[in-house]
Prior knowledge:
Blueprint: E1 5-8, E2 26-29, E3 32-38, H1 53-68, E4 78-85, H2 91-98, E5 108-113, E6 123-130
Parallel strand pairs: 4-5
Antiparallel strand pairs: 1-2, 2-3, 3-6, 4-6
Amino acid sequence: MSKTREAFSFTPAEGVPPAVAPFSHAIRWGDLLFVTGQMPTDPATGKLVVGDVLVQANQVRRNLEAVLSPFGATLDDALMVRVYLAFFEDYGAFNAAYQAWFRGPLPSRTCVGVNGLALGARIEIDLIVGLREGQT
C-alpha cells in the first residue's frame, strides 16, 4: 500500500460535524487512518448535544462512525482510542457504555481527565485505525 499522505474532510451531509478549526477529519497514511478528535456535536446543527457523558459519548460514537464509513471501516478496526473526559468522575459510566461499541477484541486505549474541552463538551475521542486490504 502506498505511503502517500492523504487528507480527508467531510460535510454535515455525510454525517460529520463541520470542522471548527484548521484540520482534516482524517489522514490516511498507508494502511493507517488517523481520525481527528470528535466532539459531541450534531452534524446537522454544528451545536453541542445537551446531556450527560453517555448522551455525549453516543454522539461522538456516531460522528466517529460517519468518518470511518467512507473507508469501509468500523470501530472494530480501531487500533488505538484516546478518550478525553472533562470530568473524570464520568470514567466508570463511560467505560460501561464503551465496551458495547466493539464486537471483537478491544483496541488499546488511553483515557485522561482534562480541565476543559472545546464548546464545554464532557468528552472527545480520537482514533488510529488499521485499514484492511480492500478498504478504500
